[in-house]
Give the backbone structure.
Amino acid sequence: MLNPEVKPSLNVKENLSRYETMIDRQMTRAIHELERMQRIRKGENTPAPLVIDLDVSQQS
């Protein structure tokens, strides 16, 4: 069991933040793809995706 009095280092917080961002982006892409596939299955006219995912972050 983790000790609640021990605070994670800044490096650990940065890594967790990066992983959280990565997972959030993956979930967003997956949801968009699922919604598109559901529209195709229903027979709706579904054009190519208009969502553009850009990564403009810089690593120092």
Remarks:
- The CA atoms of residues 7 and 13 lie 10 Å apart.
- The two ends are 34 Å apart (CA to CA).
- The first helix runs from residue 10 to 41.
